[in-house]
C-alpha cells in the first residue's frame, strides 16, 4: 500500500509539472498526426503554401538574423564578456574538452550530417545557380560547407552561453526559453507573454525533431534493404528504425549524463572512423584534400556575399530553396541543442564555450562534408561514376547515396558502419532533445534536479509520433523542409530577444563584480 509520505511526494511532483506546456503540444501532435495519416495530400499542400509565404516573402528575415547572430558571437567571444565563467568564477570545467565536444557535436547535428555529407553537393550540382557561378567542381562543394559551418553553429553557441549564464551564473530554476528573456521582459516573463514564448519553443522543438527524423531515417531503411537483400517497404522499415532508435535513446537518457556522455563518445569514434576509412581507402585522397581546401577558401572569400544573397529576381530561387531553409532548420534546433550545450558547459568561460564550439563543432562538420562529399564528387569529375544522372533519373537521394557507398571498397562493411553511426547520432541527439523537453514540463527545476522518469519517457515517445506521421504520408523533401521554415519564423524573434537579454544581464553582472572589487 502507498504510504502517506509517498502520496505527498507524488502530489508535490504533480504540482511541479507545467501541464499547459506538457499537454497542449501533446494535443497538437495528436491532431497533426491524424491529419497526416488520413489527409496526407491535403496536409502536404497546406504545408507547401505556408512555406512559400514565410520562405519566399519573408526570406530576408532569416538571412539577417543568421548573419547578425554569427557576428555577435565573434564580438561576445573576443570582448570583456568572454571572460565570464559559466558558474562560480573559480570553477573548473565539469567535462574534459573531448567529452564536452563529443556531447555538443552529436547533440547538435543528429544523423542528418551523414545524409547531407554524402548527398548535398548533388543537389547543388543540379541547380541552375551553380551554372551561373561557374563549374560544378568549383562550387558544388562550397555550399555544403557554408550551410553547415559558421552561421549555424553561431546560432547554437550564442544561445548556449546565454542559457549557461542563466543556469550557472544567475542560478535560475525555470529552465525555459522565457526565463532567458527575463532581463528585458521582467514581470511579463511570468505572464501570458512568457507562456506564449515557451509554447513557441516547444512547437519549434517538435518541428525540428520531425524534420530531422523524417529526412534521414529513410536512408537507414535503404541501407538495411541493401545489406540484407530484402525489398521491404521503405516506409515500414523507416518506422521500425524510428521505434528502435527511440528505445536506445530512451535507455540512454534514463541513465543520465553518464549514459549520454558514453554514447556521444562512441558516436564520435564511429564517425571519425568512417571518415578516415573513406579518406584513406576510397581512392580519392588527393582530390578530397585539394578540392576540399579550395572549397574552404571560396567560403572564406565569399562569406558575406553568400550570407546576403537573396536572388531578388528569382532567376533560380536558390537562397529560398536552400540557405533560408537551413537557417530556419538550425533555428528550430536552437530550442534543445543550446540548452544542452549550456548545461554541459559549466566551468568554461564564455570565450572557451564559443571558440571551443567553433573548433570542435565547425571543424568536425567541415571535415565530414569535405571527405564524404568530395569522395563522390571526385568520382563524378573523373567520369568513373555518374551520380548526377542517377539522381536526375529517379529524384531519389537515398538510392544515390547507396550507389556512392557501393563504389567504396568493403561496401557491406561501410554500409553497416554508416547505419550504426546514424543510430548513434540519432540516439545522442534525441537524448538532449528529450531532456530539454522534459525540463520544459516543469514550472521550476533546480540545477541538480532531474525531471521525473515518467515525464522523460513521455517526451521520448512524443517526439517520434510526428516523424512517423510525416514518413507515413510520404511528404516530399520540400514539405519536410516547410515544417522547419514555418516553425522558425516566430522563434527567430525570440532568439533575438534572448541574445539582447543576455547582453543586458551580462553587462549588469560585470558592473556588479566591478563594484564588489572596488569595495
Automatic annotation (TrEMBL):
This protein is called: Glycine betaine transporter BetL
Q: Which GO MF terms does the UniProt record name?
A: transmembrane transporter activity
* Similarity annotation: Belongs to the BCCT transporter (TC 2.A.15) family.
Q: According to its UniProt record, where is this protein located?
A: Cell membrane
Q: What's a Pfam family in this record? A: BCCT
| Segments passing through the bilayer | 20-38, 58-77, 97-118, 145-167, 196-216, 236-254, 266-283, 324-342, 354-377, 397-426, 454-472, 484-503
GO cellular component annotations, sorted alphabetically? plasma membrane
Spell out the coiled coil positions from the record: none
Q: Which InterPro entries match?
A: BCCT_transptr (IPR000060)
Q: Which UniProt keywords apply?
A: Cell membrane, Membrane, Transmembrane, Transmembrane helix, Transport
| Membrane topology listed for this record | Multi-pass membrane protein
Source organism (scientific name): [Ruminococcus] torques
Gene (name only):
betL_2
